[in-house]
């Protein structure tokens, strides 16, 4: 805890800006990944990232949703082909 207090009390504005930018990238990482894996639900995932960042469990759920978008469609097509 003392380490965090020293960082926050320092006058290094570039380091503080890097921490804020890094935190935002991590907070919205599921939305960035959904651009690759689940483009259809990007808007919904982006909106879900806002409150989900407060809970690790919810953020993990949004991460799973963002990265498994095409997987469900791929397996659904295989099932349709078999029937």
Topology:
Layout: H1 2-9, H2 13-27, H3 29-37, H4 42-52, H5 56-67, H6 69-82
What features would you describe in this structure?
The chain has 83 residues and is an all-alpha fold. The chain has helices at 2-9, 13-27, 29-37, 42-52, 56-67, 69-82. The protein is elongated, with a radius of gyration of 18 Å. It starts with a helix and ends with a helix. The relative contact order is 0.12. The model has no long low-confidence stretch (mean pLDDT 85).
Termini gap: 60 Å
**Unreliable parts:** none
What's the story with the biggest beta sheet? none
Q: Secondary-structure element order, as H and E?
A: HHHHHH
Q: How helix-rich are the residues, as a percent range?
A: over 70%
Shape: elongated
Find the count of extended strands (DSSP E, 2+ residues). Answer: 0
Count of alpha and pi helical runs: 6
Question: In angstroms, what is the radius of gyration?
Answer: 18 Å
Our estimate of the beta-strand percent is: under 5%
Mean pLDDT: 85
Give the class from helix and strand content and strand pairing: mainly alpha
């Amino acid at each position: 805890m003392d380490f965090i207090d020293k960082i926050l009390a320092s006058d290094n504005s570039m380091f503080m800006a890097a921490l804020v930018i890094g935190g935002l990238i991590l907070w919205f990482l599921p939305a960035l990944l959904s651009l690759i894996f689940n483009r259809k639900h990007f808007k919904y995932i982006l909106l879900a990232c806002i409150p989900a960042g407060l809970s690790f469990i919810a953020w993990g759920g949004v991460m799973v949703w963002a990265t498994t978008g095409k997987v469900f469609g791929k397996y659904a097509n295989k099932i349709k082909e078999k029937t």
